[in-house]
Structures are given as C-alpha cells and as structure tokens.
Amino acid sequence: xxxxxxxxxxxxxxxxxxxxxxxxxxxxxxxxxxxxxxxxxxxxxxxxxxxxxxxxxxxxxxxxxxxxxxxxxxxxxxxxxxxxxxxxxxxxxxxxxxxxxxxxxxxxxxxxxxxxxxxxxxxxxxxxxxxxxxxxxxxxxxxxxxxxxxxxxxxxxxxxxxxxxxxxxxxxxxxxxxxxxxxxxxxxxxxxxxxxxxxxxxxxxxxxxxxxxxxxxxxxxxxxxxxxxxxxxxxxxxxxxxxxxxxxxxxxxxxxxxxxxxxxxxxxxxxxxxxxxxxxxxxxxxxxxxxxxxxxxxxxxxxxxxxxxxxxxxxxxxxxxxxxxxxxxxxxxxxxxxxxxxxxxxxxxxxxxxxxxxxxxxxxxxxxxxxxxxxxxxxxxxxxxxxxxxxxxxxxxxxxxxxxxxxxxxxxxxxxxxxxxxxxxxxxxxxxxxxxxxxxxxxxxxxxxxxxxxxxxxxxxxxxxxxxxxxxxxxxxxxxxxxxxxxxxxxxxxxxxxxxxxxxxxxxxxxxxxxxxxxxxxxxxxxxxxxxxxxxxxxxxxxxxxxxxxxxxxxxxxxxxxxxxxxxxxxxxxxxxxxxxxxxxxxxxxxxxxxxxxxxxxxxxxxxxxxxxxxxxxxxxxxxxxxxxxxxxxxxxxxxxxxxxxxxxxxxxxxxxxxxxxxxxxxxxxxxxxxxxxxxxxxxxxxxxxxxxxxxxxxxxxxxxxxxxxxxxxxxxxxxxxxxxxxxxxxxxxxxxxxxxxxxxxxxxxxxxxxxxxxxxxxxxxxxxxxxxxxxxxxxxxxxxxxxxxxxxxxxxxxxxxxxxxxxxxxxxxxxxxxxxxxxxxxxxxxxxxxxxxxxxxxxxxxxxxxxxxxxxxxxxxxxxxxxxxxxxxxxxxxxxxxxxxxxxxxxxxxxxxxxxxxxxxxxxxxxxxxxxxxxxxxxxxxxxxxxxxxxxxxxxxxxxxxxxxxxxxxxxxxxxxxxxxxxxxxxxxxxxxxxxxxxxxxxxxxxxxxxxxxxxxxxxxxxxxxxxxxxxxxxxxxxxxxxxxxxxxxxxxxxxxxxxxxxxxxxxxxxxxxxxxxxxxxxxxxxxxxxxxxxxxxxxxxxxxxxxxxxxxxxxxxxxxxxxxxxxxxxxx
Amino acid sequence: xxxxxxxxxxxxxxxxxxxxxxxxxxxxxxxxxxxxxxxxxxxxxxxxxxxxxxxxxxxxxxxxxxxxxxxxxxxxxxxxxxxxxxxxxxxxxxxxxxxxxxxxxxxxxxxxxxxxxxxxxxxxxxxxxxxxxxxxxxxxxxxxxxxxxxxxxxxxxxxxxxxxxxxxxxxxxxxxxxxxxxxxxxxxxxxxxxxxxxxxxxxxxxxxxxxxxxxxxxxxxxxxxxxxxxxxxxxxxxxxxxxxxxxxx
Lengths: 1118, 249
Prior knowledge:
The structure holds two protein chains of two kinds.
Chain A: H1 3-13, E1 19-26, H2 32-42, H3 61-66, E2 73-81, E3 84-92, H4 100-109, E4 112-118, H5 125-136, E5 140-146, H6 148-153, H7 159-203, E6 235-239, E7 244-246, H8 248-259, H9 263-269, E8 274-277, E9 282-285, H10 287-290, H11 295-313, H12 317-327, H13 333-337, H14 341-352, H15 355-366, H16 375-382, H17 394-405, E10 415-425, H18 439-460, H19 466-481, H20 483-500, H21 502-506, E11 509-519, E12 522-523, E13 527-531, H22 537-542, E14 550-554, E15 557-562, E16 565-569, E17 571-572, E18 577-581, E19 591-594, E20 613-619, H23 625-638, E21 643-646, E22 652-656, H24 659-673, E23 678-681, E24 687-691, H25 706-717, E25 725-727, E26 732-736, E27 742-750, H26 753-761, H27 763-777, H28 786-802, E28 815-819, E29 826-830, H29 842-848, H30 862-874, E30 886-895, E31 906-910, E32 925-929, H31 955-973, E33 976-990, H32 994-1003, E34 1007-1013, E35 1019-1027, H33 1034-1041, E36 1047-1057, H34 1069-1075, H35 1084-1096
Parallel strand pairs in A: 1-3, 1-4, 4-5, 5-6, 29-30
Antiparallel strand pairs in A: 2-3, 6-7, 8-9, 10-11, 10-19, 11-18, 12-17, 13-14, 13-19, 15-16, 15-18, 20-22, 20-23, 21-22, 24-33, 25-26, 26-27, 27-30, 28-29, 31-32, 33-35, 33-36, 34-35
Chain B: E1 16-22, E2 25-31, H1 36-41, E3 57-59, E4 64-65, H2 68-75, H3 80-90, E5 92-93, H4 97-118, E6 119-120, H5 130-139, H6 150-164, E7 168-169, E8 172-179, H7 180-190, E9 194-202, E10 205-212, H8 217-228, E11 233-238, E12 247-248
Antiparallel strand pairs in B: 1-2, 1-5, 3-4, 6-7, 8-10, 8-11, 9-10
Helix pairs in contact in B: 4-5, 4-6, 7-8
Protein name (chain A): Elongation factor-like 1
Pfam family, one (chain A): GTP_EFTU
InterPro entries (chain A): EFG_II, EFG_III/V, EFG_V-like, EFL1, P-loop_NTPase, Ribosomal_Su5_D2-typ_SF, Ribsml_uS5_D2-typ_fold_subgr, Small_GTP-bd
C-alpha cells in the first residue's frame, strides 16, 4: 500500500460520519476470509485475480495450512461511493467454535456486522452463535448469502428451485433473530412483572381489579427493523470465490432503465411472490399460485444461470461473446483463451457484478457510523455487573453524552476499549521495518557511504595508486545509481541498527492492543488510566488516594492495523479501530483506557465458549522450566480465551476452548513464546478417600444377612493381625510401638456429609483457630478480634447441631485436631478415658471460664499423636490420596514409662483388660500424667528420653509411625470408598440433539440433574454432574456427537462418594449368580484406584499375564 | 538313552521352574512363566493358571518325577497339590522377563513419586510433577537397583538430579523454644543446620521458626533434647514448605 493512501486514511479517520466499523461473522468455512479478500482487493492491496485464494488476513502459517481462520484481524479500507468517501475498518473473525472468543473481541469493537451464510449449508450452529453475539452487543447485522455458485454447479438446482432454497435460508436466519428477539422481550417482561410484584408487595394493597395480561407484549414490541429482507437492502447474494455479488437495488436500477419501471416499485417487488405480466406490462402478485416465474427468478437468477450455463457447463464460445457484449464487459484475450472456465467466469463476473461493490454499498448504507451509536448500547457497555446505568455517578453519566456525540474535540475525554492483546514479531513493527528511503536520505547515505568507503580505502592502503582508484570510484558511482547499492546501504544500516539494539532482539514478541476509540482522540505518548474490570468510578470520585483496579500507563505508539502489517500513526480520532503499543505491562487481556477517572470500565466480553479442555504442560527438559513459565505468561496475555495456571501439584495447566484451540496454543508456545519442546498430557486428577457406614444391601439390592458380615470380618482378620497389631470385630484397632512401650487404640468413623462440607468451607477459620491455640499453648495471649471469636463460636455450634446422636455425644468438645495440614475435613477425637485434654476450642474456654483451664493438661508426646494423624489423613491406604470426612477416635492411649522416671509424677495405674484378644502383648500400662505443678501456662514439654532411645529410635518418632499405621488400619477396617471431584456441567442444546447429549453424559458416568426449556427459544438447558476423571476429551466428543449444536460448560462443584466398593468381590449367593466368581464387570472405583496406584508406582493387584497358556511359548532367539 | 538329536530334543518353553531343597533332596515344580510372582502376591488365585502340572519333579527339564517315598519323607504328606503349594510359597524361583520388567517399572515410578513428593522447585516453591521427574531420571540414565529400597534410591536420585536441574528437598518448618540459659550456645550449634530463619523472638526464652532440610531433623531433635535436658521444645509446623493453592497467571 502506498503512502498516499495512508494519508488518505488518516484524513478519513477525522470524519466519523463516514467511518464504518464492521466485522465479518459466520460459521466455519462459509467464506468470511474469501469475502474479506474481495474487499481488500478493491484497495489494490492484493490482486483481484488472487482474491479468494490468497486469504490475505490469514497471516499465520497454521491458518494457511489448516485453511481456517484462528484470530480476528483488522484492516482499514478506503471506499469511494459517488462523491462520498468512506473508511471501513474491517475485522475478519474466525468461524470455528473454539475461537468464538476472538469473535467476541471483534464484535465489541464494531458497530455493524456482515453475517455470511453458505447458500447450501444454510444456518449452522455457529451462525446462530454469531447472530446471538451480535444481538447481545447491540450491533446491527447485514446478511450475505454466499456460495450461490454451488447451487448451480454442485446441486444443479434450477433457478426456480434456487429461489425457494434462498427463501428458506432467509427464513431460517430470520427465525434465529426472531427467537433472540422474543426471548429478550419475554425476559424484559419477566423483569417488569417482578418489579410490579415488588411494588405491589411494597404498597400491600391488594386491589380487586388485578389485570392479567397474557399477550406477552410480543405484539407490541416493534421488530420490523430486525429481520433480513432483500427489499430492505440488507441482504446481498454473492459468490465470493467467483467474485460476484449483488443486492436487489443494483438490479432494480438496471431494470428500471431497461424496462421503464420505477426503481422503487422494482425494489419492492423484485423479492417476493410477484410476477411480470408481459402483456399487461404490470407486476402482479401471486406468482406461485399461478405457476409463474417470480420476478426475482426471471430477472435476476435466470441471467446468472444462463451465464454459468454458457461459461462453465457448456463452454459455448459464441454465446459467451454474446453475453459479454450484452453486459458491456471488456475481457482480456488471455482470460478468454484460458482453459479453466472459472477464470473466464470470474473475469466476467467481477466486472459485471463485483461482489465488493455490492457489499460495500450495503455496508455504507445500512450499517451505522460511530456517530449513530445507540444510547442503549452505551448504557449497556458502561453498566458493569448488575448495576443499572442510573446508579452510576453523575460525572459518569455525563460521559454518555460524549459517547453519543462521538466528538473528537480537544477537551473531550478519551475512552478506548482494548478487547485483546496480540503478539507481533518485534521485527515486523513499523519502527523497525526497513522503509523505502526518500531521495534526500538516499543522497545523504550515498555520500556517507562514499565517504566511509574512501576512508577505509585510505586506511587500508596508505598509498593507493591513482590508476587503481579512479575506476573504483567510477564503479562506485555507477553502482550507487542502481538500486542494488541502495539495498546494500540499507542492509548496512539495518545491521548497525541491530547492533545498537541487542536487548530488543531478545524480546521477540511485542504486544499490541487491539482497541477502538469510543470518545476523544488518542495521541501518541498520551498518559491514560487503565481501568480494571472491577474498577468502580464512584470510589475514584469520592476519594483521591489509592484506588483499586486503577493504574496509569502511556500509549507509546499507535498503529493502523492493515492485516499483517502495521502503519504508525500520530493520533487516532474517535470511532476508529487501532493498535496500541506499550501496554503489555498494564493490560493483561482486555481493559478500558480513559483520561477521565469517572469512566466506568466496560462490561466484560461475552464469551460464547468458556475454556474447558484442560491439559498439563511440561517441558521436555526439566531445566527449561523458567522458559516455559515465561512462555505461558505471554500466551495468557496473547489469547483472550486461554487460561493458564499452576496447580498445587506443581502442574502447569492450560485450559483452552477446544482441541483446535489447544493445538494452536501449543504451537504458539513451541514456536513463539517459549521456543522449547513441550509435551502436553492429561492432567492429574485428584481423589479423596473416605469411609462409609456399612451398607445395608448388597450389590444386587438384597438385604444383607449375617452371612455377609462374617465375610467382611473374615477378610479383615486375614493377614492383618500381627504381634503388635490387633483388629477387633467392631473396627477398633490396637497397635503397639515396636519397643512395646506405647499402645494406641483407634476407631474410624464416617463423618456426616454436612459436617465434611462445613469443615471444608471453614478451612480458613480453622487455620486461625490453630494459630490461636498454638500461641495459647506457649502461654502467650493473642489478641483475638471479636469477629473471629464469634465465627469460631458459630462454627462450634454448627458442628454441635450437625453432630447429633448417641455416637457423637460430647464429640465436639473432644475434638483433638483437624487434618490433614491441621485444617482439613477430618477430625481426631479424644475418647481416652482419664485424659482431659484441652480441646481445640480452648480459646473460647479461656474467655468463658478461665478457671477450669488449669485442670486440663497436655500429656507428653501429644504432638506425636497429632502428627501421626496428620500423616495418616494426608495419604490414605487406598491410593495415597488425602482422606476426607473421616473421624478417628482415639479410645485408648497408654504409655509405659521407661524404667526410671526422673520426675515426680503421679502415676496412675490404668490396667486394661483386653478380654477379646488372647495374643495381646499389652497386659497393663501406666499412664503418665504431668501434674500441673507449674500450673498456669499450659505448656508441652519434652522430657529427656535418653533411656528410651533404643534400637527403634526416639519414642516420639515411633509413636508417630504407630499412630499413622493405626489410623490406616482403622480406616481399612471400615467399608472404604473413593471420592471423586465432580464438575457441574451446564449444557445448552437444541431439542433434536437432546438424545445424543444424554448418550455422551451416560457414557461418561454423568448424571443429569434437571433440564428445562429456555423460554422463547427451542434451546434446552441441561444441568448435569460429571466426574472430573471422565472429563478429558469430553468437550470434543460432545461437539462431534451433537454436530456442535450443544455446548457444555464445566465448573468444579463438589466431592462425591462413588457408591461402589473398590475392594468388592461377590460374597453372597445372589452376587455370585449375578456377577460370577470374578466379578468381571467394570468396577468404577477400582478402575480409578488402580489408575492412581499405577501412576504413583504403588503395587497394583493385577496379573502380569492374564492367561498363562496364551503366552508366547518360543524362546526369544527363535 | 537315545542320541540327543534335534528331532527328539524337546525345548521347554513357557516354563518357569521353582526349586526347593528339603530333607537333603531337591524338588522342582513346573510353572508357567510370569505367574509365580503374581501367585505369591495374591493377585492370581487360580492354581491351575500357575502350575503346568500338579506333579513334583526332581528335574523338570529331564522330566524326572520325584519318588513318592522321598516326598512323604520330606514333606510328610503325599498330597501333590499341597506339596506344590508349599514349594510355590517357599521355593526359589527365577523371575521371568515380564515380572522383572513390571517390578522395575513399578519401582521406577515409586522412586519418581517419592522424589516428587519430597522435592520442590526452589524458585517457585512448587513441587515438580512425577512425569517431569521420570523424564529427568531417564535423562540422567538412572538405573533402578531392585535390591535397594525405593526410599534410599529416591534420596540418591535427588542428589544426582541436583546437578542437572533446579531441585531441592522441600524444607520442613520447625519451631523450637529454648530456655534463655542455653539459647545462645545452642543457637550457634544449630545454626549450620538451619536453612532459613523465619522469625526469632528472644525474651524469656528463645523462640525460633525456621526452615530446615528434612535430613537434619533428627540431628536437631537430638541436639535440643540432650542439650536442654528437656526444657526446650521442638514442634513441626509443616512437613513440607510448599506453595499452597492454585495460581492463575
């Protein structure tokens, strides 16, 4: 593009009335980029011959290879219509569902949209989606029905059939718009009703004359402007590949001259059920009823059909010539002789009915200029969240005026919205690009170069002979005149440039903001406020000091976006799309920039598809980790939809909208941002382990008799009891330390589900509680705020309410600790007789009754018990995953003190008779209780244990291990279950794919909670839950099975117990009958458990070879 | 005996021999390959899937069956199945290829899991994933030794990995309270063992919160216990000092 047109564009930018900001939206492969090509070709940026093949706006390599657009890119075009000159800021958007976030970014910046629909395929899922998006953003769409040539060439429809087909498509599109409209009206109505309802409640006057209005107000609402209709001029029929397109107006004008009918009449009758009565020279209604050809068919389609017939199908040279002369088109001989009829066709068509002309005309006439921005849209953009526009501060409301006027005066506030950040090679920036030199510069450089040359000559050979010198100089001058030398000089210059900026070479990517000026003039180097999405203008106006979500930055450079190229600008007036450099630090993905702090941030972009495909990313070489992290940060900024996070497990997780999007993100990471080899894998799925109450029924829903119980006990006893371990039938586990000095008895119990979730919710509170307790134990007093204390009391009472029944009597007061990490959803309960340990609630006790604290003391090694419990809850016995919702009750804890206690303790004999066990090694044990000799501060102290430090190591360590083992065995003595993380899955689906939605959900162990129909549409909203473990590849399968008509959204919701027992084997007769001896049918929890165990390298009870006989029986070397 | 020719040479394939010496005699049984270890672990419950035949041999490859007298003399019974079970349980066997392979693989994973659990990236204080550790172990060509415990090997691996990547054992967070008298002296002794001192509070007693390498824990424990004669206390605040929660970029 020449410089002259850049100047032109700059000039045009100042006249907002003649600016059109528009984007091209459509389903994938409906010809957006091809259409964009045709429009770009009008400005001479690409050859019109290549239009449709080049796909100029698909600048990425993978876009060209895959043939789909992956990002939205903008280009500014200049269009002259009569005496009016227009500036079109055209944004091409991707059609693939994975990139619908890019569509959102494009739509936000535009005032109008060209919706492209394939004439053969009709309305597709993404067409619906983009129409919805355009609707939600309040931008006006126009329709282009593309690929009409396919109706002729591929489907071989007659013109009459084609007309019917086109009509059908138009109806489909209008139906989608209609549903959007009705749903909006219904929603508004519901809101109004609610308000009225509230009003009624407020007034509390129940008048008798209540009027029920069921008209739904649909009739009242005006929707005439909404629909697409050729006679309204907002529909263009086109074939972008062949380069033709037309609107009704064009034909109306042609025929009004030819036939002498008024253009207005033709305009109204050219589309619709009208026919031409040749005798009466009248246009009559009811073509279909009378079996006549519609006017549209007769005057428009037939012409095109005959052209295709002549050129493509029959290749009738004479006829072509006839057509050409009648159309008044001049053809090049080269095109006429070309063997491919398509070339000839496009040569004729592009002169007869150029698509760009039709589309651009429609755009300029039908789409609004920035001046006509709707007040409703402004209000919607500016009212964040649920806040009404009226509730915003006054200064902010005043901004609306500036907005609506779209004025670019000097004192108008600047408002810019950045919809995305995109990465550009630093080398491609105009500052760093080699630009053609002006003549003066050339001359200057020539002199310089000559000088340098001469100098170096002089330096090299101190006394060069004259005869040598002159020819060289002559040669120099000769060379310099040719352009080659200029190239050389340029290269030299660029080399020196490179040398001077080595740091810049390091940073290969520069981020440029994709933005639009909504008010004021953006100037290079201007300082602006960056408003985060949560920024509240009221806050900024009320106080001057630190305001959250507000920062300052400088717009270092402004660019005109020309597809893959950028042109630097000094200033950009209102209503234009632009690129802004130098914001990468202050803007992450999108932001609102303004010079006025009163400006509210715009509402966040409305994404059709939320990211749901999760993968874990790792560098091939572990040492490249920092590079990966940096790359992922860049990727996060460059992609509006991708999410990047580091999980607690240390995984780097990338969340994308779909498989294609994922592929693009990985390519970007590999080639642009991180520049290392990476591998993506299934992310690690967390599980939890828990115990449940013994089931009452077996797997075939038979009541469990005694028979089964015996089986369980048998299983437990087998191989578990050893010299130091004993498990009794009630699930009480008694374990002695290896040195036979300490014994603990523990029982595991399931916690009620509500308790578990309560504990999970109040993890933070428990953490504070733990801290308070710790300082209390040290004898220090911590200032506890009243609120915290109240919260703790609240938690305690809630627990008391939830833990009812005989089993849990006084349980809350006896809570010893929480785990794992002291804050988890498991409880250690102190049920030791004669051990009055202060509970975790001691901070409350201190306030309520301070006197009693002295009587409660902590035993030695109390810490070891807690540590053992923490370890046990951190990794359960099933697959070393954390426990959840388990209560360990310590029933006995005896320590035989070593032979010579050095301190005077009151020894309390406490002999325990283990009547049930014969092989118990523990006959009796003494319990040491440290008397409150130093009463007052409660303190845990470590005693010298020199005597007990035997071959087994220190007692504390042994006790930790024993406690941990005891907990694990107690856990195993109960029916164990696995808990899986669940996603709630919200699915929007049309009625016809509902069955397949259920199929996919069922296959992946999902469960549908409820479904309902969205009012005013044919969409169903289904809510289901789905295990996280089954979600890998879910979105992809879903889209494939439903042809993209249903889109799921996944959000983590809760943990759920899998009802099946991973260790289950058939035990009762019925179960044998039903499942057979081996229980071959898949056990879901066993599958999960084994997968985790295998991943962790734990022993998996699996046969290496299933059938011994079926092994390869030959030796290896034969 | 006939001449040993290729036609009458019968090769025993798919046979794993389990041998046992009892009563001065050697007994063998013929089992299927890759099954004996499973049987011992309890994964295989079908005896016929393990044994080729229920007979007990003196030499499997020669096909010499043990005499009944010898069996009763050595085992005290002539129930062949019972004897087979005993030999299966106690006899010595050669581990077959797949068994060895799966054993080594399991161990490799186990080691990687232990390393991943114990270590963090010192820059981010976040753990590495098991996959990454496995890759790194392959990069340094670590070979698993089947007769050493996985924990021991894991410690060895950590040492070796430190040379090629940023890795460090996750620190333990300890808190100890020392009586004022010994505090100064003890602190000097403890100093080389502590990695980071997070807080230090000296009024009546010295209270310190610090990060230590888990390897030094026992040493510190011992030191405090002996030196202060039970008046100092040591508390483990967290076993692993890692970043908690997810972080979004």
